[in-house]
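Weekly structure sync, notes
Attendees: PL (lead), two postdocs, one rotation student
Agenda item 3: pending single-chain targets
PL asked that the sequence for the first pending target be pasted directly into the notes so everyone works from the same version. It is reproduced below exactly as submitted, 237 residues in total.
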Amino acid sequence: MTRTVAIIQARLGSRRFPGKMLVPLGEWSLLEWVVTRVRQSVLVDHVLVATTSEQLDDRLVAECQRLGVTVVRGSTDDVLGRFVDALAGDSCDTVVRICADNPFVDAGCIDSAISAHLEKQSDYTFNHRPNGACNYADGFGVEVVSRKLLEEMNSMPLTSRHREHVTLAVVEGAIQARIHACTAPSRLARPDLRFDVDLPEDLDRLSGLVAAGRITPSSSAIDVVSVADRVTADRSS
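Predicted structure, written out during the meeting:
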């Protein structure tokens, strides 16, 4: 029987937006948005946060403890190694990678990617890259990877760049694997929209959406897209 673990990749040492994981978006920290929304997935059996061993991330660990979510610590730059080490002692065979700067990541999108991954018997499934047929809004990104592939990559002499970006060696073709790109349903086929938080101004923009549409961690991806369209229409009228 398949067991799936979702790993949320998070740290406080962002160069462009230091400490962003703990900044508030509405009434919730950015990390709380992501943890809460990933937990709503039907097909994810366990959720954990993988952060670094740096002292700076002690505050992030404290937030994880407040949220009651498992947190593991590892290398700052070798994120691939951090992921594999985080799975020690778990029997999972499927891993979902979530970046914690996507506060509107959606449980339905996660489950769709997992279902496609299992149905296609893929090694790597994604919905957020410009190649393939991916056409979701930026910020609903999900990657599903077989544990076997992660462990194989971890044993290879990859470049530091490939180890930092976990799945990049597969994307760039340095490692051969069975890949599947997910296509969004029509109501979510909005590659023109962007909901990730890279810079402080991104947070300001999303804060405006949260306030205008009363978006909460329980809002669906369709709800989020609808609010974004309404706010855009109001501004242009």
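Discussion points:
- The chain is about 40% helix and 15% strand.
- The beta strands are 4-9, 24-25, 28-29, 46-52, 70-74, 94-99, 124-126, 143-146, 179-181.
Action: rotation student to compare against the earlier draft before next sync.
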